[in-house]
UniProtKB/TrEMBL annotation:
It catalyses: a 5-methoxy-2-methyl-3-(all-trans-polyprenyl)benzene-1,4-diol + AH2 + O2 = a 3-demethylubiquinol + A + H2O. Fe cation 2 binds at residues 70, 122, 158, 161. It comes from Poecilia latipinna. Fe cation 1 binds at residues 40, 70, 73, 158. This is 5-demethoxyubiquinone hydroxylase, mitochondrial.
Length: 197
């Protein structure tokens, strides 16, 4: 039996209302998880680059401590992607190189450069997590309780890293605001692209 276009249109509208009433669409959830995984992957590569340059300095243990937390974040998002059958972004090879290069190049500027990078990246990630928390709370907080807990915990860790960077002289780097804004612009572009590719 052939369906009439009017019936198809009504069914599509009913599906859309259902998605809006009971949570985020599958596509939106996949985008959210994909970009979170990409962000944690990129953060791991940034800290790897910083450790390659500053690992044996007095700043090394501090960077290692933050990197260890990022490794836990990435591990958790690897689990979440697998559980929800979400593919990671196709851009992981690019984020591998770009993250390491960003971490190493800012670390070559010294401790202050590495900390400026940390402040910029962690502030961007925290803001992104906050927007996701708002979206999940507006959608269906009971349905997303576990994911909300994970994102809130990771957001708090990112803010701790941000504050650590400020406490360790990030703002004393000459050109701090220029570097911070450039890195944050790159983070926004990476978030946008990773959601879609």
């Amino acid at each position: 039996m052939v369906q009439r276009p009017a019936i198809i249109g009504r069914r599509r509208k009913a599906r859309l209302r259902h998605k809006c009433a009971f949570g985020l669409s599958k596509e939106m959830m996949h985008r959210m998880l994909r970009v979170d995984h990409a962000g944690e992957y990129g953060a791991n590569r940034i800290y790897a680059g910083q450790m390659a340059v500053l690992g044996r300095s007095r700043t090394g243990p501090l960077i290692q401590q933050m990197w260890d937390q990022e490794k836990k974040h990435l591990s958790k998002f690897n689990e979440i992607l697998a559980e929800n059958r979400v593919r990671p972004t196709a851009l992981l090879p690019l984020w591998n190189l770009a993250g390491f290069a960003l971490g190493a190049s800012t670390a070559l500027l010294g401790k202050e450069g590495a900390m400026a990078c940390t402040v910029a990246v962690e502030e961007s990630i925290s803001e992104h997590y906050n927007s996701q928390i708002r979206a999940l709370m507006e959608s269906d907080p009971e349905r997303y309780t576990e994911l909300l807990q994970v994102i809130k915990e990771f957001r708090d860790d990112e803010m701790d890293h941000h504050d650590t960077g400020l406490e360790h002289d990030a703002e004393s780097l000459p050109g701090y605001w220029l570097l911070k804004n450039a890195i944050q612009l790159g983070c926004k572009a990476a978030i946008y692209v990773s959601q879609r590719v």
